Amino acid sequence: MSERVVVTIQHPAHVHFFRHAIGELRGRGYDVRVLVRERELARELLERYGIAHRRIAGSVASPLGLLAVQPRYEYEILRRVRRLEPAAIVGIGEPAVAHAGHLVDGEGILFTDTEHAAVQNAVSLPFADRLYTPTAFWDDYGSHHRRYPGYHELAYLHPDRFAPDPAGLTGIGDEGPLVVVRLVSWTAAHDVGRSGLADLERVVAGLERFGATVRVTAEGQLPPSLEARRLATAPDRIHDLLAEADLFLGEGATMAIESALLGTPALYVSGLRAGVLEELEGRYRLLRWLSADARPIDVLSHARELLRIRESTWARRRRRVLEETVDTTGVIVGAVEDAVRGGRPRESAESTVPEVVRR
């Protein structure tokens, strides 16, 4: 009988992160079961990619709602893991994965790149059998913690996995620079008290005076004056759009990183920081961070400066990133196979995980 692996999904970004690994593991004979928490776009993406899955918890609209549904979600994960008896349980920063790994023979494997998710990290990362983070991750969790040179987003945006296709993109304008604006809902547990772009209408007006075509992707309502600029792009085409754009401007860290890795300059406006964001800004100069209290005039000044830099400069900086990082899907697959074949993490870095992974 083939070894069974459980993958948990709590966010649309997790679908992208795991989808190639799910396919590769299934191609190698593993019985991969996908358990998903209801979340805007997550199940739609799974269906678009043809990934069989089972819904085990409803959606939430606020941090308090997340706290309310979490016990039920953990219970369902534990109940199903007991029944499925997987050799490995995999997730992104998910407490239920770490806890379930201690109730069955399977290894609990967690990935994360988010230091500021302090509460979630405290109740999950120390209890995982294996923890994998980018090398830029600030914190250290001890002997079960492994690092790799890369980013979550390179699990699906590495050139071996993704080639941009602009064909069929609509509503992006034929003249002037294309600016994609991202607004988030700020409903995650680690978003409490956080904020991002202020006076969005003024920012958009300033960009359009500069000759830009502005398209907005948002988790929720937009001001009526901006609704006509809402993106109509299908969720599985968003990375084609980001690759086509001339600038990303927004509150979403994941989309800012995605843009940077595609060679599109990212202007990230938020009170949230992370090691991977600082590395993309300081080492590779593909991303620029502004604090959440940045004035619209300052946001516009930085946006215009970034739009004036030549495309060849962004392409050169992107090449450097790709030369110094790895295909993260290989890390995921290697982590699962190492856990299934070898049990507890070895003290040395020698394993089926790529050689670049280090303690």
Write the layout of secondary structure elements.
Elements: E1 4-9, H1 12-27, E2 31-37, H2 42-48, E3 54-57, H3 63-84, E4 88-92, H4 95-100, E5 107-111, H5 118-122, E6 130-134, E7 145-148, H6 154-157, E8 178-183, H7 200-209, E9 213-218, H8 238-244, E10 247-250, H9 253-261, E11 266-269, H10 275-282, E12 287-290, H11 296-308, H12 311-323, H13 328-342
Parallel strand pairs: 1-2, 1-4, 2-3, 4-5, 5-6, 6-7, 8-9, 8-10, 10-11, 11-12
If you had to describe this structure to a student in words, what would you say it looks like?
With 359 residues, the protein is an alpha/beta fold. The protein folds into 2 domains: 4-158 and 326-342, Glycogen Phosphorylase B (Rossmann fold); 178-323, Glycogen Phosphorylase B (Rossmann fold), CATH 3.40.50. Helices cover 38% and strands 17% of the residues. It has helices at 12-27, 42-48, 63-84, 95-100, 118-122, 154-157, 200-209, 238-244, 253-261, 275-282, 296-308, 311-323, 328-342; strands spanning 4-9, 31-37, 54-57, 88-92, 107-111, 130-134, 145-148, 178-183, 213-218, 247-250, 266-269, 287-290. It has a 7-stranded parallel sheet. Strand 4 (88-92), helix 4 (95-100) and strand 5 form a beta-alpha-beta unit. Helix 1 packs parallel to helix 2 and helix 1 packs across helix 13. The protein is globular, with a radius of gyration of 20 Å. The two termini are 33 Å apart.
The count of domains is 2
Q: How many helices?
A: 13
Pairing-aware structural class of the strands and helices? alpha/beta
Q: Please summarize the sheet with the most strands.
A: 7 strands, parallel
Order of helices and strands: EHEHEHEHEHEEHEHEHEHEHEHHH
CATH fold annotation of the largest domain? Rossmann fold
Instruction: Label the overall shape.
Output: globular
Question: Beta fraction of the residues?
Answer: 15-25%
- Oligomeric form: single chain
| Text of the CATH class of the largest domain | Alpha Beta
Query: Using DSSP, what is the number of strands?
Result: 12
CATH architecture of the largest domain: 3-Layer(aba) Sandwich
Helix percent reads 25-40%
Strand neighbour order, sheet with most strands: 3-2-1-4-5-6-7
Distance between the termini: 33 Å
Are there runs of 5+ residues with pLDDT below 50, and where?
186-195, 344-352
- Output the radius of gyration: 20 Å
Mean pLDDT, rounded to whole units?
88
